[in-house]
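Hi,

I'm pasting everything inline rather than attaching a file, because the server keeps stripping attachments. The sequence lines come first, and each chain or strand is labelled.
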Amino acid sequence: MFMWQANMSVGVMEFDAHHRRIIELINKLSASLEKDDNPAVVREVLAEVANYTLYHFFEEEDLMTKHGYPEYPAHRKEHLDLTAKTFQLMNNAYGDHVVIGAEVYDFLVSWLKNHILITDKKYTAFFQARGLC
Amino acid sequence: MKEPTISLCVQGDVLQALRWILKEFNKNLKVTQFHSLTGFESALSTQETDLLILDAAVSEQSILTCLQKLKGERPGLKIILIVSPIGSREAVMEIIKAKMVNGLVVKPFTGEVICKYVGKELDESSAPEPPGVR
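And the predicted assembly:
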């Protein structure tokens, strides 16, 4: 199970809460895969992960543009790349004989860990200086 | 205080779910439904809306073209777009890149994410009191 840890805090409470929720949903997806749930159920959970992640991206980007975060273009590119990949995963999951495998879970965990620990952490000092942390 | 108004332009399969979610979210929301985008566009001149929840499936043209037209006529219109998980990935990515919508929801969806977007887009004053707070 993937757990949120204190070293993952990005300083902005709202975004920490989003990350925790995304991790919960990724773990829900893992549990669904382990239980060998019906593909329709797994797809629903995958959509739940995708929807919450997209919502989080919109929120993060709004705050970045509102405050003129200088790393915004590079950060947004990472969001766009994951969004495109997520849509590809969902497209694949709707094929007639496609089984959603554990590699989807592994991909999401690895992406989120790297994104939080490296890319998101970069904005901590910036938002701290603006009293948002 | 003016009641926040949400316009729904969605397919029948999600209409009831959305109505229920929005009612649970805030009973004071004024929700208007349109069966087609043409109907919504016609009403735009006379009717105010704080937020449009649009199902890409109701669009007769490509959703990208429809959004360009809508934003051209009403640049400040806030839109939450609901899309199918299969199909026109490229169009969806174009829409996100061009920042044509304020939120994107993939079917099937839960009430959680709809409420998050609606709460964000409507004025703070229209949000309901958290349970237990007086």
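Strands of chain B lie at 5-9, 30-34, 51-55, 79-83, 103-106.

If the labels don't parse on your end, tell me and I'll reformat.
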